[in-house]
Amino acid sequence: MEYEAVIGLETHVQLKTKSKMWCGCANAFGAEPNTNVCPVCLGLPGVLPVANEEALRLTVLTGYLLNCTIPRHAKFDRKNYFYPDASKNYQLTQYDQPSTAHGFVDFEFNGGISRVRITRAHLEEDVGKLTHFDRTSGVDFNRAGVPLMEIVSEPDLTSADMAYEYLNALKDILIYGGVSDCDMEKGMVRCDVNISVRPVGAKELGAKIEIKNMNSFSGVRRAAEYEIARQIEVVKNGGKLKQSTRRWDDVAGVTEEMRSKEDAHDYRYFPEPDLMPFAPTDAWLADVQKRVVELPLARKQRFITSYQLPAGDAEVFKNDVALGNYFEPIAKQSKNPKAVANWVINNLRAKVTEANEREKAEQGALGLEPADMQLTSLTDLKFKPEALAELIGLVEGKSISNSAAQQVFAEMFESGKAPAAIVQEKGLAQVSDTGVIEKFCDDAIAANPNPVADYQAGKVAALNSLKGQVMKLSKGKANPALVGEILERKLKG
Questions:
Q1: Which pLDDT tens digit goes with each residue over 346-400?
Q2: Which end of the chain is more exposed for a tag (fewer CB within 10 A), N or C?
Q3: By three-state DSSP, how is residue 152 classified?
C-alpha cells in the first residue's frame, strides 16, 4: 500500500512594531537580558494590558494580503499553561474569534501555481526565551509580550519541498507588506509542523504529529522529510501512530518525542477579562487597506507580461524591490524593456555592489561596525534614471558601441555626467562611415594573411580574428555589424 503525507503549518511571526503588545517596552533584539521589561510584560499582580494598535493594524493588513475575511468582532483569550518562559502562567492569544480567517496563499511550485488555504492569522504575545547551561537554565523576558502573529494553514501541503516553498512565499509577502522583517537569525519567524500520513486516496487524516519550534525553513524541510519517512515506515510495519509532539535534532537528523499532544481543552481557554473585544470600524479598515501592496507573485507575473521579461529577470525584480522600482519607470518609456533590464541587473546592480564593498572596507578600516556604515543605495546615485535610458538609446541608435557604453556607464556612476557629454568628451562616438571602415578593413586584411587564408579555406571563425584587428585599429569605435559586412564582402570578392 502506498502512503501520502498531509502537512499543515503554524507559522509564528514577530510583528514590526516599536513597542510590545501590551506595554511601552521596546520591541528590540539584542538588549541585555531582562532589560526591556516592566510589570505588565512580566505579569505582576494588579497590572492591566493595553493593546498595541499598530499590531492590530498589521494583523488585519496580513489578513488582506493573505486574501482573508476580516471579522467585525474579535477577542483575546487566555491560554493557560505552566512553563518557565511564561511568567503569567498563561499566554494572551485569540482562540475562537480571531482577527482574520479563511484566506489563501498562491505560490510557485513544480513549474506551476499551488494554493494553500489559510485557516486564520491571529494575534497573540510572544513568551520569554530559555537558555540552557550545563547545570542550570536562564530565562530572558525581553521577548515576552512582543506582538506575535500565528498564521495557521489548512493541511494542504503534500511534501517537504512544498512546505519549504510555501514558507518562502509567505515570508516574501510579509516582508513586502512591511508586516515583519522575518529575520530568522533574530527569532522573528518560528514554525510548528503538523504531519500525518494516510493511504493514497483516503479522505480521513492520520494521527497528527507536531514538530515544535522550527527556526529555519531548510530545517522544516529536513525535519518533514525525515518524519514523513518515519511515519510511513511505522504504519507499513503494522505499528500505530499516536498524536504527539516531537522535536527536531538537526545534528542527528532525527525527530524525538517530547510529550503527548495537547488538545484545546487542555489549555482551559477563556476570554481575557482585562481586554475589550476588538470591533474595527469601516473607517479603520479603510485606513488599513491603504497599506495593501502588490504581492510578490503578482509583481513577477506582471513584469513578465507587461515588459516581456524572462522569468529569471522578473524573479530578480521580485526579490529586489528597490531594483525593480528603479527599472520600471525606465522600462515604461523604452521600446526595449529587456535591454533596460540587462543594464539594471548586470551593470547597475554590479556597480552598486562594487561600491558597497569598497565602502565597507574603507569604513571598516576606520573602526565602524556594519550597523553604522553608510553604504550606497539606488537613491544615492549621482545620475537620474533618465540618464540610463539615454545611454541605452545611444547604443540602440548605433551612436556608440557596447564596449564604449561600458566606459560611459562607469563614468556616469562616478561623476554623474550625462552620457552624451561623456561620449563627446572622450571621443567615444561610433564610426559608421563606410569609407573609413573600409580603410580599416583593408589594413587588417593586408596585415593578417593567415586569418585571411583560413577564412577563404572555409574556417568561418577566422573572421572574428579579423574583426578584432579592425576594432583595434579603430580604437573600438568602428560599428561592429558594419565591420563584419565589409570584411565578408571583401574576402569573398
A1: 999 999 999 999 988 888 888 888 877 887 899 999 999 999 999 999 998 888 8
A2: C
A3: strand
Do residues 157 and 7 lie in contact, with contact meaning Cβ atoms separated by under 8 Å? yes
What confidence score (pLDDT) does residue 389 get?
A: 94
Can you tell me which residue has the cell 530559555?
A: 130
pLDDT tens for 403-437 read: 889 999 999 999 999 999 999 898 888 777 788 88
User: What cell numbers appear for 429 in the block?
Assistant: 562616438
20 within 8 A of 146, measured Cβ to Cβ? yes
d(CA 477, CA 92): 71
Per-residue pLDDT tens digits for 150-199? 999 999 999 999 999 999 999 999 999 999 999 988 999 999 999 999 99
Q: What's the pLDDT score for residue 308?
A: 96
Which stretches of 143-216 are DSSP H helices?
160-176
- Torsions phi, psi for 472 (to 5 deg): -65, -45
Amino acid in the structure at residue 309: L
* Residue ranges, CATH 1.10.10.410, the chain: 434-492
CB neighbour list of residue 458: distance below 8 Å, 6 or more residues apart:
none
- Does residue 55 sit in helix, strand or coil? helix
Burial label for 33, CB within 10 Å (0-12, 13-18, 19+), is: middle
331, 336, 338, 344 alpha-carbon torsion, rounded to 10°: -50
pTM assigned to the model: 0.86
Compute CA distances 435 → 103, 118, 479, whole Å.
69, 70, 12
Cα distance between residue 492 and residue 459, in whole Å:
13
| C-alpha–C-alpha distance, residues 402 and 423, integer Å | 12
Q: 521579461: which residue's cell?
A: 309
User: And the C-alpha cell for 461?
Assistant: 571563425
**434-492 CATH pick, 2.30.40.10, 1.10.10.410, 3.40.1390.20, 3.30.70.3040:** 1.10.10.410
